[in-house]
Every structure is written in C-alpha cells, then in structure tokens.
Amino acid sequence: MAVAGIVCRVSGPAVALETTLLAHGVPRERSLELFDALERDVRGAGATPALIGVLHGLPIVGMSRADLIELMADPVCPKLNTANLGITLHRRSSGATTVSTTMELAAAAGVRVFATGGIGGVHRGYGERLDISADLAALARFPVAVVASGVKSILDVESTREALETLGVPVVGYRTDVFPAFYLRASGARVDARFDDAADLGRFVESEMRRTGRGVLIANPIPEADEIHPDRWHAWMAEAERAAAGAEGRDATPALLAALHRVSGGATLAANIALVRSNARLAGAVRMAMG
Fold first, then answer.
1. What is the pLDDT of residues 131-185, one digit of tens each?
2. Residue 255 class from Cβ within 10 Å (0-12 exposed, 13-18 middle, 19+ buried)?
3. Exposure string (b/e) for 119-154, b if CB count within 10 Å is 16 or more?
4. Helix 230-243 and helix 252-263: axis angle, to 10°?
5. What is the mean pLDDT of residues 2-8?
6. pLDDT at residue 2, as a whole number
7. C-beta separation of 185 from 224 below 8 A
8. Which residue among 18, 138, 216, 291 is least crowded, i.e. fewest CB within 10 A of its CB?
9. 3-state secondary structure of 228
10. Catalytic residues
C-alpha cells in the first residue's frame, strides 16, 4: 500500500521501529538478532512491528529482514533526519531513519506508536555551540507516541527535559516519577505525570495526540536488573570520551557509544539491548490499548 509516496506494508495496530538503531546503535553482527527480538517483543503484545527505512529513494514502513540486510550492505548507510530525508528521496538514495524521520514517516502512514532506545536531545556544551537533535522538534510536529528510556545519558539530560517542556511535549513516566537517562533509571529531572497501567496510558496517549496533533514521550526506565551502576557509568563515560575525541556532528554519538561498548566490556551494549526490548514490549501494550 502506498501512502503519500510511502510504501506501507503493515495494517492494523502497528509499532514503528527505527533502522538507525540497528545500523548504527549496535554492532552490525548483532543487528539481525536484535531485529528478530524486537519483532517478537512487539508481536508478543499483539501488535505488528513496522521497521522504517529508505531504500533507493523509497520510504518503507514495514521493512522485511531482507530489506534490512540490503540496507546494511552499504558500509556507510547514512543516518537520515528530517533535514536530509527529502534530499535522500530526491536522489533515490538509501539510509537509516533516526527518531525524527521514523516519526515523520510513521505519522504519514498512520502508525501512532514508536519504540526506540533513547531520543536525541541537547548536547553538552550547548553554550559554546548549538547542537540540538531534530528529535525534539519532531515530537512537537508529529502525532506519534515515542516509548524511550529517556534521553541518552551522554547528553545534557536536564536541558533536554527543559527543551521538551518549551516545545509543549508531554513527558509521562511509566511506573516512574523521574525522567530516566538511558543506562540509568533516574536523572535529576522529573516527568509531567506518572502512569502505572499500560491500558490507562494508551487511552491518555490516544486522546492527547488527537487533542493536540503533537507527539507524546513515554519515559520507560531501563529494567532494574539491567541498570548500570552510576559509579561504573561515570568512569566508563570519562574513558569513552577520551577515546572518541575528535568525532563531530552526526558521527559524535555513534563514536561515543562504540567507545562505551568497548571500555565497558560489552556491558553498555547489553544494557542498550535490554532497554530497547523493554520499550518494544511496552509500546506494543500501549498500542493495543488505543482505539
């Protein structure tokens, strides 16, 4: 089915998944394994997984495993945000969708819930150089509920939370009063409201997005058993920052995450996989509670 130039291969209650997570967020040799696990998690909740990406200028909602393999055959596999998506389509190129482009294509195809690991946000050193993820503006533009474990803790968490409030994006916690920070269950910021029941959360999300036409951020902390102890996290982070020094722009976050996975002996990678799978399960449950 084509929707405004988009090939949509899903029907019924669907949960969007992003391709940047698979192409850049984990080592390539783990990508297909994670893709299979996320599909099982979403289906286990009763919903349909909808992997989103661009192949040869064609935006696809509901990519197959074969599509993903083809996409990742490109050793570069560019990351697409809302600024360069149109250029990629015009030039009939391929690329992996980030949170912002996944939201844009999901909204165009009528997919209203999206599971990811963590959203982008305000980078550290904001006072020296403007570096804010397009993910934040996308949440204010597209009516998609994003289930994430807060913002990546390599960013400025508190400034990101303030930016979301400025943009009018509701941030609700699932079984938490505190805004999570990816590998850590808590940061110094709070959420706007807490929901302890996925069905009630789904009903709220549906009515709120209909009311505003904006997105909702659902903050789901990493499972307690998989959280990284803050002391270990800060030590690993300091070492990873030294190892990834010199990476800039869109390469900065992948370089830092790769360094973290190395210096932690794979502990941060295991935590990353655990939290995104938890988010996929919650996203499925939320979607099934919506009308």
1. 889 999 999 999 999 999 999 777 899 999 999 999 999 999 999 999 999 999 9
2. middle
3. bbbbbeebeeeebbbbbbbbbbbbbbbbbbbbbbbb
4. 120
5. 76
6. 47
7. yes
8. 291
9. coil
10. 18, 152
